[in-house]
Every structure is written in structure tokens, then in C-alpha cells.
Specification:
The protein is built from 17 helices and 28 strands. The protein has 570 residues and is an alpha/beta fold. It has a 9-stranded mixed β-sheet, with helices on both faces. Strands 18, 19, 20, 21 and 22 form a 5-stranded antiparallel β-sheet that branches.
Length: 570
């Protein structure tokens, strides 16, 4: 039976006020230098109310959208909750990775602000001037303010009635920068999903559990999984800077050991990073025996990566049974399926060729023609899931089709985007765009029905990357194709470019630098094919899946020996 037995609050605002009565429990913020600041839930509620009054003083009314670009956890959480307490709708947006290509970042930011019709963008003093100047040239109406500027607004808080059916926040899917889609997440969706993954999923006990996270808060896993869920249940947590984890992954393990952490979560790449960067000599003094849930989701899960992680950390008390693979997406608030807590890491070996034919025939572990797929579990109580063929008919076990789900966690649609809403939400069922199969009710994911890339927990549309690369010298628009292929530890991004043989050596590093600076992505390979070498439809559209197939079988067109000056394609 679940160990959380309090009545669930109807909204996150109600939950925050309810748990503000807790004298000591709250969130601990760890700074980049290792300093710690503990904020009891009562203090968080007080600070959020002050932030709400500051927003109200700037004219923010109920229902208004408020953009948030704040890298620091404390500032982000207070502003996010403050906007909610004011009845506004926060819009979390990822901060710039660097200032090397700030124009590309601001283009994305401007699209989101316009699409959400945000009236205010809250950022920190270090970013305010740059963002304000850059947005001023892009016809964005949102007023850019810093957290310091907000603090100068003196006004008492005016209480606002927040109801379960009110929009809680807009969750923009990280994809197309030209047509961003903001998922409307209502308070009832948050309450339903938080109860699903906190109570039925991890079986939380707020008296003894403590969450540990370095995940960015602009992403749904970090925000809903480690702010919203714990606030609904009154579970204390520790927040580490994302950048600190990337630089020194061991701090994640140190925090779990130091605080007796019991619940953590991360995409597959994070476990792979630990395997690569942490050595046996680095384990001295660590104790991970308190960790009972080590979740994995947000991108394809590698059984080998998790097993290697478990083997590396077994000497310091980590148990492989702690693994909790899962599946989710923004349109379903966060979590869709969880593996049962008693099962840990479970996988199925299938024949690779059968998957392409719509079946999941049993394969042999380790065989070159077989593929190991991790069990992502089953849907929560009150929710449904099915796998369907192209005609919408339900498929039986081991038959591959598109995954559909419905239930109280599934959102209603995209903000002011009826066309996209009609395409993704049909008759109450969310069309996930993911391909998978079931075995006795458990879900196994095996691919994407669409071209969307999922890398390190973030989603990317190939067209965005293709357009960016097309701006490079020697590259023409329409002569770039982007896709991903499975790697040893995570999905690998491949960028195929048409170009003259003489430009081959220069193109590869230029493409890799462009994609890294613009999207924060590492490109694994940049094959340069002769002009006209990319397969296209009769109407001139790129055939990504065909290009990917050619790449996987080493059949991409090659430059002829000595042909250094081929003509350019039109």
C-alpha cells in the first residue's frame, strides 16, 4: 500500500499553503561553490507570496503569461510559484548555453514569448540587458525585468482564487523554433500526475524520503518530478546546479551519500556519464545504500548503461533493484508508465529485423541481429494505454505500433494552436508519436513514429538543425539531412551534407561547431556526400528515413576518387 495517506490538494497553490505548516521540511539549494541554503516550505510559501505581490504591482492579472529564464534553482522556484499564486501562468524557458550564438537563442526565445503572448519575461540581472536589447529588434511585446527589479515593487499581496481547471503553466516542447507548441498544463493535470508518480510510482513516504536532483527546472522531469511532485506530498529535496553536475558528475553521488537521499532521477546519458568519468578510486567515502529509487526516462534507456552503473557503484551500496525505468512526455504532464517498484531493471531481447516489420520476435542477447529493449512498465491507476496500427486498430502483444494514452494526466492541447491540438489529441487519446509494443501490459519502446530527435532528455526537430547548418558557407538550404542512430550509451546525432569533395575536410568541423553552439548538441558524424546525393521525393522533400537507412548500411553515395570539383546541386 502507498505510504502517503494525506488527502491530495486540488492545486499546487493549495498544496504549498498546506505544507507551509511544516516546521522544518523543505528544499535545500546547493550553490555552484558547494554552499547550501535550506528553505522550509513555510519560507518558500512566504517568498512566493512576495514574488506574487511584485508581479501584481507590475500589472500581472490572473491568466496572464509570465516567461521565466532563470538558471538558478531558488530564483526559478520562487518565481514559478509566485506567478501561480498571483493567478498567472508561468512559461519556463531554457537559459542560453553561452553567449557565442546569442542571436540563435533569442530567435527561439522570441518565438516562445510571442506564441505564449507573455506580458513579462523574468530573468536575472546578468541576462536582462542582453535579452532586452536582443528582443527589442524582434517585435516582442513582453517586458524584460530582473528578479532585482521585481524586488523593488512594494505592494501587499492580493489573494487570488486558483481552481483545479485553471492553467497552471505552459510547457513548451523543445522542438521547432518556428512553430513552438505550448502544452497547457492545468492544476488538475499536475495533481493527477503527481499522485500517479509520487504515490503509485515511487511509493513516497514524506517522513523518510528525500529527493536529489541536478535536472534543469525548465525541463518537465526536473520541474514536475522534483518541484511539483514533492510539493504536493510535502517531501523534502535537494537541488544541485546542472552545470556543476556536467562538470563533475561525482557531486550527484556525493549529495545522495551526504544527505541520505532516497529518490533520484536522470536521463540515460547521466548514468553513462558517471560510468565514463567516475573511477573506482573516486568512490571512497560514498554510501549509496539509502537510495531506493534511481529512475531513468526522457530518452531511450540502455540496459547495458544501467547495468554498468550498478556494477560500478555496488561496492558503495547501490542496488540494481533501485532502477525504475519509465516513459513520459510533456503532453501527458510528465509520467505515463513506471516499472513496478519490485521489479527493477527488466528487458526484452528482440530480433532487429522483426521490429522493422512490425513485430517483436524473440532474439538472442548479445547476437548482432538482436536488440535489447528496456521494459518501461505500465500505466497508472485511472489511466489507459494502447498500441495501434496505422488504421487505429488495437494491436496485441509483440506487435509494433503507435502508443496512445488517455487519463486525468493527459493535457487538453496546445495553447492557441487548434490545428496541432486536433492532430495530437483525438477522442481523448494522446497520439504520442512513439512506436512500441506490449507484453502482458508492460510497454517496450522501440522508436519514433516521427522524425523527432531525443538526445539527453531534450527533443529536437531535424528541420531546425538543418536550417542552421544550411546557413554555413558552402552549404545550400535543402542539402542537409539530420537524424539520430543508437549509440553505445545514448542516441547519436548524424548530419549528412551535400558538398564538393574539396570542401569535405572543412565542412565537418564547421557543422559540428554550428550545431554545438546553436543547440548544445554534439554531432557524432558528418558524412559529406556528392551534390545530389541525398535521397528526395519527387517534389524535392528530403527522405530522412531513407537517408538514415543508407547510412546505417554504409550505402550513402561517395565522392569519386580525384573528383575534387563536382558541380553544385541546385
Amino acid at each position: 500500500m502507498p505510504r502517503y495517506d494525506e488527502p491530495f490538494q486540488p492545486t499546487l497553490v493549495h498544496a504549498l499553503r498546506h505544507h507551509a505548516r511544516e516546521a522544518s521540511k523543505g528544499f535545500t539549494m546547493v550553490g555552484a561553490e558547494g554552499t547550501e541554503r535550506h528553505l522550509p516550505f513555510a519560507v518558500i510559501a512566504q517568498l512566493a507570496e512576495v514574488r506574487a505581490s511584485e508581479l501584481q504591482a507590475m500589472g500581472v492579472q490572473k491568466g496572464a503569461r509570465v516567461g521565466i529564464v532563470l538558471p538558478e534553482s531558488e530564483d526559478f522556484i520562487i518565481t514559478f510559484l509566485g506567478a501561480m499564486m498571483a493567478g498567472a501562468v508561468p512559461v519556463p524557458i531554457y537559459p542560453p548555453f553561452s553567449f557565442k550564438n546569442i542571436d540563435g537563442y533569442v530567435d527561439t526565445l522570441a518565438h516562445i514569448l510571442r506564441a505564449s503572448r507573455s506580458s513579462i519575461l523574468v530573468t536575472n540581472p546578468a541576462l536582462q540587458q542582453t535579452l532586452e536589447a536582443s528582443l527589442g529588434t524582434r517585435e516582442v511585446e513582453a517586458r524584460v525585468v530582473s528578479t532585482v527589479g521585481l524586488a523593488q515593487q512594494a505592494q501587499s499581496f492580493r489573494s487570488v482564487d486558483v481552481a483545479p481547471d485553471d492553467a497552471a503553466f505552459l510547457q513548451f516542447t523543445s522542438g521547432s523554433t518556428n512553430r513552438p507548441k505550448g502544452v497547457v498544463v492545468r492544476h488538475r493535470h499536475l495533481a493527477a500526475n503527481a499522485e500517479a508518480f509520487m504515490v503509485h510510482g515511487v511509493d513516497v513516504d514524506p517522513r523518510t524520503d528525500r529527493t536529489i536532483s541536478w535536472l534543469p527546472l525548465f525541463h518537465d522531469m526536473g520541474l514536475i518530478g522534483f518541484v511539483v511532485g514533492p510539493l504536493f506530498t510535502g517531501t523534502p529535496g535537494v537541488f544541485l546546479p546542472t552545470s556543476s553536475f556536467i562538470r563533475q558528475p561525482r557531486i550527484w553521488l556525493e549529495a545522495i551519500s551526504r544527505t541520505n537521499g532516497t529518490i533520484t532521477y536522470a536521463p540515460n546519458f547521466a548514468y553513462a556519464l558517471i560510468n565514463k568519468r567516475v573511477k573506482e578510486r573516486d568512490l571512497a567515502g560514498l554510501d549509496l545504500s539509502t537510495l531506493r529509487v534511481a529512475g531513468s526516462g526522457a530518452e531511450p534507456i540502455s540496459a547495458k548503461v544501467l547495468r554498468d552503473f550498478a556494477a560500478l557503484l555496488a561496492p558503495v551500496g547501490f542496488r540494481e533493484s533501485s532502477f525504475l525505468p519509465s516513459y513520459g512526455m510533456a503532453e501527458a504532464t510528465l509520467a505515463i508508465t513506471f516499472v513496478d517498484r519490485s521489479r527493477g531493471l527488466v528487458s526484452e531481447c528482440v530480433q532487429s529485423a522483426s521490429i522493422e516489420k512490425g513485430r517483436a520476435d524473440k532474439g538472442q542477447l548479445g547476437a548482432p541481429d538482436s536488440r535489447e529493449i528496456v521494459n518501461c512498465g505500465r500505466v497508472f491507476p485511472g489511466h489507459e494505454l494502447k498500441v495501434v496500427d496505422a488504421a487505429g486498430a488495437c494491436l496485441g502483444d509483440r506487435l509494433v505500433g503507435e502508443v496512445l494514452t488517455r487519463g486525468p494526466s493527459v493535457c487538453d492541447g496546445y495553447f492557441e494552436n487548434p490545428e496541432a491540438t486536433r492532430a495530437a489529441f483525438k477522442n481523448g487519446w494522446l497520439q504520442t508519436g512513439d512506436l512500441g509494443f506490449t507484453i502482458d501490459g508492460d510497454l517496450f519502446l522501440c522508436g519514433r513514429a516521427k522524425d523527432l530527435l531525443i538526445v539527453r532528455g531534450r527533443n529536437f526537430y531535424p528541420s531546425d538543425i538543418e536550417w542552421a547548418v544550411s546557413d554555413l558557407e558552402k552549404v545550400k538550404r535543402g542539402n542537409v539531412c539530420v537524424f539520430s542512430v543508437p549509440g553505445d550509451t545514448e542516441e547519436q546525432v548524424i548530419v549528412v551534407v551535400e558538398g564538393a569533395r574539396a570542401d569535405t575536410e572543412a565542412l565537418a568541423p564547421a557543422v559540428k561547431t554550428c550545431v554545438l553552439e546553436r543547440f548544445g548538441l554534439n554531432v557524432a558524424d558528418v558524412p559529406v556526400v556528392p551534390p545530389g546525393g541525398l535521397p528526395k521525393t519527387s517534389s524535392g522533400k528530403l527522405q530522412r528515413q531513407k537517408t538514415r537507412e543508407l547510412y546505417m548500411h554504409s550505402h550513402l553515395p561517395k565522392h569519386r576518387a580525384g573528383a575534387a570539383n563536382e558541380g553544385e546541386s541546385s
